[in-house]
Amino acid sequence: MLELTNLESGYGELTVLHDISFHVENEIFAVLGANGAGKSTLLKTLAKLLPVKNGSIAMDGADITATPGYELPDMGVAYVPQERNVFPDLSVAENLSLGGLVGVRSKEEKLEEVYSLFPRLADRKSQVAGSLSGGEGQMLAVGRALMQDPKIILLDEPSAGLSPLLVDVLFENISAIRKERGVSIVLAEQNAVKTLEVADRVLVLSLGRIHLLEKAKKLNMKQLKEAYHI
Ligand SMILES: Nc1ncnc2c1ncn2[C@@H]1O[C@H](COP(=O)(O)OP(=O)(O)O)[C@@H](O)[C@H]1O
Ligand SMILES: [Mg+2]
Question: Ligand 2 centre from 168 Cα, in Å?
Answer without folding.
Answer: 20
